[in-house]
Amino acid sequence: MSRRSNGVSPAAAELAELAVAPSLIVRHGPDGAEVVAASTAFSELLGRPVPTGACLSELFPELPVDALASGSGPHKVSLAGAGGDVVQAVLRVDRLRSEEFAGLVLVQLDVAASRSRADRALWESEQMMQAIADAVDALIYLKGADGRYLLINSSFEKATGVRREDVVGMTDDDIFGARLGRTYHANDQRVLDAARSMMFEEPVPGDTIYLSTKFPLIGEDGRPYAVGGISTDITDRSHAEQAVRLARDEAERANAAKTEFLSRMSHELRTPLNSILGFGQLLELDLRGEQADRAHRIVQAGHHLLNLINEVLDITTTEHVGLDVEVEPVGAVEAFQEALVLVRPLAEARGITLARDFHGGLDTAVVANRRRLAQVLLNLLSNAVKYNRPDGMVTASFRAGEGRIRFLVTDTGRGLTAEETERVFAPFERLDAGGTEVEGTGLGLTLSRALAEAMGGRLGVERAKPGRGSVFFLELPIAPGVRPQHDAADAGPDEPLADLSSVRVLYIEDADANVELVRGVLERQRVAELACARTAADGVALARVARPDIVLLDLHLPDADGETVLARLRAQPETAAIPVVVVSADALGPRITRLAEAGAAAYLTKPVDLRALVRTISELTQESRG
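^ thats the sequence. predicted structure below, dont judge the formating
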């Protein structure tokens, strides 16, 4: 501090300099007050020396003009302190009454009586954060790197019974016990080591589970110095998720059991039908006249039962497994034409005229599964024929618009009421079934609607009126930019059964009736040789020795599964190239796909279509001989 006396004794200057509190010696006059001496404490508070002669009003702009004359105060003042902080203080004024100090006053600041704005802002921020934390239902806490608590919120207090005044310095072991404490500390340490937020499911006493989000607090050196946490009670959610997991596991077990049941049911129902339809077809080929007609009725009844089995399996698979409907562009006109060809014999037998107007679908391809599309169209057309009036008409037509096209099937039958238009799609629902001789299962439209939706389309009744007929529609998306190839539909009769006089066949099958059926049809086609094996072991051994041209393989054998037999035949050099045709009553799609991927050349489901069996044997043996 400058020691210029400026009319001030050295004693006064020394008095100001040595004062413990920030102090000033001020000369007060009519024109204002000026500093004549400042204490070291005041200069340190200000962050710079105070020059002699400085105007007091520049240091304390808000100080009243008459403050020095009116008495000792106190007066609240602000001072721009060191580091840019504004210091709030209480100013006291004392007159120095000694003759040596005549005309001077002592100004002292009580800084401890107030806070700096930074301190107050920090305090207010802490209070605000504590208030926010206390308003949250979750447990909020802060722990040092040593695992000792620094602060908690009110929810933590309620959950643990520990007061925030007492928690500082406590550990998880103190609050929750050693076992849980080790778990919490290990999770905290992972957060500190990784220096990033993590989530943990943490148990607490009382069978309660909390979801804890823990995060590190990073210091200026870039290292974590504490870990914060927000823990939310998820006991109910955890129990619900566990219940969902148990339900899902149970559903998966039930689904597996259902799949196994479907496989067994398919096998058990189709096995006797194989004999009924197989020998019935042989009788049709061999008999003439009235006896051939009776054999035809047996085959017809067998096919009706087979259709029922197929549709039940399809419905069950659709509801519980889902449909495998890989789609591709399919010509709309070609698909409709093929379905009309197939339904024509039924229409002719009932005196129904088939008409078509394909202008709306020319040069149009739809996004569909070719086989499933044919199945749906055939069902719509056959229903339109079967439920028509005598000498009625069925019309197939199209209507396109907005990227989709409708296949329309119009009939001149009895029509439907508004209530019946939805009932017809219910399983096993056959309207007026008791008053008609029409055969059916009541599942065709149910399955057809499921197939349409699986292909991204819709199936429904566009228009119906009692006594005026009905219009059913199948709507599918148009395949943009695709022009279908127009191939004439094959409407000719089935080709004659092939001659098998040069073919040697091995049949691995344990059921006598099935063996006799296959023997009957193959001997009728003069097969060169038919060897039979009743077990998997005998079949593999015989195939290795006899080297047949083709192997027919049943899947359910007494000593091994047919898939195992196929794998053995494919693994042996002597039999690896022999085509294997699976002949099984198991008609589920996933197994058929799996066997095809394992190397089966073909898969024929029982009841076996004899023409298909003969044609398959002929084609595969010709291919293998090259």
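The first helix runs from residue 10 to 18.
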